[in-house]
Specification:
The protein contains 6 helices and 22 strands. By secondary structure, the chain is an alpha+beta fold. The strands form 8 sheets. A 5-stranded mixed β-sheet has the order 5-9-10-13-11. Strands 17-20-4-21 form a 4-stranded antiparallel β-sheet.
Length: 302
């Protein structure tokens, strides 16, 4: 697995040589954009692979110098690149997306969603669902599954039939309510009934260096970015997972907290074997298309 942080900033083009020299000191190749016709300012992205030499502490020092000495305002994004050795042993996967398109992310309408506070210190909240989801089901179209409001997953009728045929475990279905001008289509919310065991003590997290004000040291949820999830082998053997599961711990999307969903290797293989998705490994792959499902493997610790 490759752990990468992309540091980005806007800089005047005249800083090109100085910045190239600065990053070269750390063994980082900087590809500076071409100068634009009507502006000397360019947008720069610097991919940095974290390793034993380029650690988080080193990255913090780089960003500090960029901000203090070069007077740049930096942002950062964390991503992971997986290989076969990460996917092969993984018994289940976090479902990240059911397509590389905004069409797979829908919003719920005026329904029975309330909010509860889970951290009184930072005010972080989570949704409480008291009734069926209300969405424009016509937007599902020919898709098998869509994400609704980050927290929820909704399947079409054809996907619900397949899940029953495949004897998928760990869920129940609740029909959603249609709202919108176009004709409704049958759609069902997946309600997971299986909760994963606690993650391993070897689980790692990342905290954005440029966004310290967004971190909460009390709940340790707000501002925390999770590495691929680690689980102890003995916990998985003693508590066999289902085909659909949710994370026991809370995760924040930057605005509220929720429990991500995980699918078993068996379920993922069925999706690939039946042509519902291709075997895509990373969100930055060129072959990641609008209807491919994206999964992150979990790591099993002996």
């Amino acid at each position: 697995m490759e752990t990468r942080v992309i540091v980005d900033f806007y800089a005047d083009y005249y800083l090109k040589n100085k910045l190239e020299e600065f990053f070269y000191k750390y063994g980082i190749q900087l590809t500076f954009p071409e100068k634009r016709k009507h502006s000397s300012e360019v947008y720069v992205e610097v991919p940095i692979n974290l390793n034993e030499r380029l650690t988080v502490d080193t990255l913090a020092r780089i960003i500090s110098i960029l901000e203090s000495e070069f007077n740049l305002s930096c942002g950062e994004a964390l991503s992971f690149k997986f290989d076969d050795e990460d996917f092969k042993p993984s018994p289940f996967f976090e479902l990240r997306s059911t397509g590389n398109s905004q069409k797979v992310f829908l919003e719920h309408k005026k329904d029975g969603i309330e909010w509860k506070t889970i951290c009184n210190y930072c005010g972080l909240q989570a949704k409480v669902q008291n009734s069926a989801l209300v969405i424009d089901t016509s937007k599902i179209g020919d898709r098998y599954m869509v994400n609704v409001g980050i927290d929820y997953w909704v399947v079409s009728e054809k996907m619900a039939i397949l899940m029953e045929k495949w004897n998928i475990t760990g869920y129940k279905l609740q029909e959603v309510i249609h709202i919108g001008k176009k004709t409704a289509q049958p759609a069902f919310q997946i309600i997971p009934t299986s909760i994963l065991p606690s993650w391993s003590s070897e689980m790692k997290h990342y905290y954005f260096i440029t966004e310290t004000n967004d971190q909460c040291s009390i709940c340790n949820i707000r501002g925390r970015i999770d590495y691929p999830y680690h689980y102890n082998k003995i916990d998985i053997e003693q508590n066999p997972i289902k085909d659909i599961n949710i994370l026991q711990e809370w995760k924040s999307n930057g605005q509220w907290a929720y429990h991500p969903i995980f699918l078993s290797k068996r379920f993922r293989d069925l999706l690939i074997d039946n042509g519902i998705t291709r075997d895509v490994r990373n969100m930055y792959d060129n072959n990641y298309k609008s209807k491919d499902w994206l999964f992150d493997p979990v790591i099993i610790v002996d």
